[in-house]
């Protein structure tokens, strides 16, 4: 008999301009999502959020390229119009918001012009890396800036 692992989701809530919090969620056996308190991203600096989400975009795009996740799963994680709107309202960079919006279009690209899907993914990866390079180095350590409860 195989091991049954809980389904994991990722929910990000952006609140107040220039602040945000991301929570890793897991699906309990009863079907309810529960916050996994070991992973919390909480930052008051939009540049730190830009860098964090740009790195997540690279990871999602690479996972899509390698067929490790589906487009639908990437949409559940980050590539949604809701997230693009929330990041824009939080004064995150227009480049990051554009990347999220391009991620929202991947399902259409995959179904309507599948031969262009790899090129679109490569473009998202390339542009995400360019966004990351534009953002200054994060000087606070990750435990204080991002994963407050990850190491506890």
From TrEMBL:
* InterPro entries reported in the protein's UniProt record: DUF3969
Q: Which Pfam families does the annotation name?
A: DUF3969 (PF13108)
Q: What is this protein called?
A: DUF3969 family protein
